[in-house]
Amino acid sequence: IIPPQEFLSQTSNMMDLTTISQLELPPTADFHCHLRDGAMCELVAPMIRSGGADIVYVMPNLQPPITQILQAHRYHETLTRLAPGVRFLMSLFLHPNMTPETVAEAARSEIIYGMKLYPAGVTTNSQDGVKDIEQLYPIFKAMQDSDLILNIHGEQPGATTLRAEAEYTPVVSKIHAAFPSLRIVLEHISTREGLEL
Q1: Do the beta carbons of residue 116 and residue 154 sit within 8 Å?
Q2: Which single residue of 96, 103, 160, 197 could bond 142 by disulfide (Cβ 3.0 to 4.6 Å)?
Q3: Is the four-CA dihedral 98, 67, 142, 196 of positive or negative sign?
């Protein structure tokens, strides 16, 4: 590891930053994007490009949540109409009635890249979320086999705000132990326990 002062002295000859009056970065990706629906969606979706992104991973916790492939396709069509220069990577809201067949069909859809696990009642529109992780093991197996991503809103229901993430990490560890090839993203981590998972 190079100390900051040494790094700055080594790089100062590369580019004279005092002569730069403008810096333009290429568009990037936003892998956690809430676009909602209705009037809010119509307001925010067209602003994605001006916000610096041209690829977004769309969160499914609408009202009602995006749980079916047809819903994801319709939402994708709406978003593409509102922001035609953006690539929308869709996800489905995990729920107890999902089947391994739905997972396989989602993987073939060419627009769905993952599934989002919301523990029941921990965030906006998550009242229909997951209460029993083991009930979803057939879904996790199908996701692993189909190479779909499991995105997790990692908060323990009933825990205090400052402990909710740390108390949920054993659940994430349990899923990983049971499905070691399943790609898992623990989203918006804010604790040491989440970071060290």
Answers
A1: no
A2: 103
A3: negative
Q: Is the dihedral of CA 34, 49, 186, 91 positive or negative?
A: positive
Give the Cβ contact number of residue 23 at 10 Å.
6
d(C-alpha 40, C-alpha 9), whole Å: 48
In single-letter form, the type of residue at position 152 comes to I
67, amino acid identity? T
**CA neighbor of 49 nearest in space, from 23, 21, 25, 73:** 25
Place of tokens 């990490």: 169
Model pTM score? 0.84
Q: Beta partners for 185? A: 151
CA 178, 140, 183, 120 torsion-angle sign: negative
What does the pLDDT look like over 143-173, one tens digit per residue? 999 999 999 998 898 898 889 899 999 999 9
